[in-house]
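Below sits my pick:
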Amino acid sequence: MDETEDLFGSDEEEEKKEKTSGEDKKFLFRRELRAMLYGFGDEKMPFDKTLETLEAIVIDYIKELCISALKVGKPDRIALEDIHYLIRRDPKKFARVKDLLSMSEELKKARKQFDDVKPI
């Protein structure tokens, strides 16, 4: 073995990392989608094919939204305003984004207040 192999790792290790990262990407939203399906009346453990199909739809939607956001705003940057602009005509999505952002701000304020309190 070379010292360079020890320092930088072998090609086999990189291939293993690429395989595992590819597999992780395939199941990004599986747990959330399973819970959503159950909440909408499906079985507790839906078919794997159903989850794969829904996940493909979600990932495609996110990709398309990001590509559109890149075209709307500053080059090579996605800003929150770009997402707002793209979903402005869908009242449900727009309201949900507003709710999530306001909840995020409230949580930040609560954490800050909690961290500012000094123990006696």
Observations:
- The CA atoms of residues 2 and 8 lie 10 Å apart.
- The mean pLDDT is 81.
- The chain is about 75% helix and 0% strand.
- The radius of gyration is 21 Å.
